[in-house]
Amino acid sequence: MRKILVSTLAFFLLASTLTGQRNSATKQRPLVFMHVTVIDVTGGPTQPDRTVVIADGHITEISDSAKAVVPKDSQVVEAKGKFLIPGLWDMHVHWFDKDYLPLFIANGVTGVRQMLGNPELQQQRKEIEKAALLGPRMIIASALVDGPKPLWSGSISVATEAEGRLAVTQVKQDGADFVKVYSFLPREAYFAIADEARKQAIPFAGHVPFGVSVDEASDAGQKSIEHLAGMFESCSSRAEELHKMANEDLADMIAMGKPDLTGGPRYHAAGHLLLDSYSAEKCAAVFAHLKKNATWICPTLVLFRTMALVDDPSLLKDPRAKYMPRQVRESWDPKTNFLLKMGASNVAYAKEQFRRDLEIVAGLDHAGVGIIAGTDMLIPYGLPGFGLHDELALYVQAGLTPLAALQTATYNPARFLGKEKEMGTIEKGKIADLVLLDANPLEDIKNTTKIAAVVFGGTLFPKTSIVAMLAKAQALASRKSIAETLSKTINEKDVQSAIQQYHELRATQPNKYDFSEDELNTLGYQFLGLKQIEAAIQIFQLNVTAFPESYNTYDSLGEAYMTSGDKELASKNYKKSLELNPKNTNAVEMLKKLTAQ
Questions:
Q1: Residues 391 and 485 in one domain
Q2: How far is CA 526 from the centre of its chain?
Q3: CA within 20 to 30 Å of 463's CA: 109, 210, 325, 386, which one?
Q4: Residue 325 located in a structural domain
Q5: How many domains are contained in the chain?
Q6: Residue 26 lies in a domain
Q7: 553 near 541, Cβ under 8 Å?
Q8: What Å distances lie between residue 62 and 371, 430, 457, CA to CA?
Q9: Looking at the structure, do residues 393 and 493 belong to the same domain, yes or no?
Q10: Domain presence at residue 293
Q11: Which of 268, 229, 235 is nearest to 359 (CA)?
Q12: DSSP assignment of 407-459, as one string?
């Protein structure tokens, strides 16, 4: 099974790891910030010259520095001229690679909402909670709950009301924090999911399906709408016509099994109808509806900015890309990335759409609709942690005040999650997730990038630790591809020589090459695509040997055997994959096919 995102890596740059620093720090003496200015993200006045005391992972005291009592043996940070804000939350990410999770912490992002759940993320969350892994707090979605012809592999396929209700039961049993609904759900199934989620007291959020309007989704209780989905249709003076087209396109896409996030042929034929029929009056009515129902919006403006700037060379030269895995950087190629393969007319359309997106976000804020900041990592040219600061800057560009923008990543996520008593503001008794800034973010939102230190769960990460996190990520990202090296050896010699080379290089140069599971998986599928089945099988076998606890390696080997016609070995490996991960829907489907043959 091909992974959508980069797999877990194993590499250590520092003799003393950053997670080790956190483990030891949790046992250290109280942490005290002296003479710091505390930012009240609820909108109250800033609090200059405060002393903030932290112990056992929580804020225990906030007082005037002139009157402060500093506990004995405290770790004191002189913070005169600096500003303290709550830890930031990115409320829409797709990130699996645990070795790059410190990039969030380095950017002051102490919490994320993972919008595509799986067992790996559940395990990562446990490790983070035990301080065995450095990464942000996680709210984790279910697998995508999509229509009968899902866009993404691993989705839960739903065609009927009964299947929709069953999906809700399944994801709740799996430990998901909420149900993630997707674009190609039939209307009846979507409303059954909404009803069942309400009965089982589990939130649902995500896309607005093509066959459902924003008002209907809001009335159904969808907690958040991602990417401004359906907003242009609902804000159109020809909304009924567009809604009819969307329903017809959805029926066709399901029938043909070719879902397309950009819409179907009727929708494309409408051209600029969406934008040209934009009605401020209709928008105002939609916004009022959303506010009445307390429906939250996660705009992910950085996604639409990327699409609007796909013809801008500066997009390709972001110096922060050096911190990203090589496979991710390669996936950003406009020639191959489906989000970026646009002609000149589509680029012009994307630019106009982005301008309208900014207007809609400003309108939502003006109407009092709740906004939560999210970046949709792994979008092209999106970077974990860094991207959230870009998103906040875009909110200000849209017309929000710096305070309102800051609230979307602090106070609003706490309210959205029902955790106002635990986080979101700097108050006594709250969790000590904090960011120390060198400049005031209320004067310029870009000052959120001027990070002097981060506190996560009461542990201080000073500038030196942040620099080390970035250096480690850069070193990880700069490794050579073992897949490319082995591919060359296979073409020049044979597979056995490549396998021997793999073992030799892993033993002698473990930090020079990327030996991740994903590398071998990519290589195996390369030869599978070239119809060199035996070579592919041997590479997948190597991956199973190297990563025997990964369900994905057995799944891929099962696919190779299935392609070769060896049903017995295909079945054996799919069963092993399910043994390691009973929720591997791909293995379930493949075993059904093998049984039916």
A1: no
A2: 27
A3: 325
A4: yes
A5: 2
A6: no
A7: no
A8: 29, 11, 17
A9: no
A10: yes
A11: 235
A12: HTTTHHHHHHHT-TTTSSS--TTSB--EEEESS-TTT-GGGGG-EEEEEETTE
Could you tell me which residues are beta bridge partners of residue 112? Answer: 90, 138
The C-alpha atoms of residue 55 and residue 454 are separated, in whole angstroms, by 15
CATH number for the domain spanning 515: value is: 1.25.40.10
Cα separations (Å) of 48 from 5, 51, 65, 268, 316?
Answer: 44, 9, 9, 55, 41
Determine contact, residues 465/18, Cβ cutoff 8 Å: yes
Per-residue pLDDT 10s for the chain (597 aa) are 544 333 332 222 232 333 334 543 445 789 999 999 999 999 999 999 999 999 999 999 999 999 999 999 999 999 999 999 999 999 999 999 999 999 999 999 999 999 999 888 999 999 999 999 999 999 999 999 999 989 888 899 999 999 999 999 999 999 999 999 999 999 999 999 999 999 999 999 999 998 899 999 999 999 999 999 999 889 998 888 887 887 787 777 777 777 777 666 766 666 678 888 889 999 999 999 999 999 999 999 999 999 898 888 787 789 999 999 888 888 887 777 767 776 666 788 889 999 999 999 999 999 999 999 999 998 888 899 999 999 999 999 999 999 999 999 999 999 999 999 999 999 999 999 999 999 999 999 999 999 999 999 999 999 999 999 999 999 999 999 999 999 999 999 999 999 999 999 999 999 999 999 989 999 999 999 999 999 999 999 999 999 999 999 999 999 999 999 999 999 999 999 999 988 787 898 899 999 887
Could you tell me whether strands 137-146 and 156-157 are parallel, antiparallel, or unpaired per DSSP bridges?
parallel
The structure tokens listed for 140 are 């984790």
- Residue 471 structure tokens: 């250096």
Q: Which domain holds residue 198?
A: 88-410
Residue 260: DSSP 8-state: -
How far apart, in whole angstroms, are the C-alpha atoms of residue 83 and residue 526? 51
- Here the CATH number for the domain that contains residue 103 is 3.20.20.140
Domain membership of residue 459 (yes or no) is no
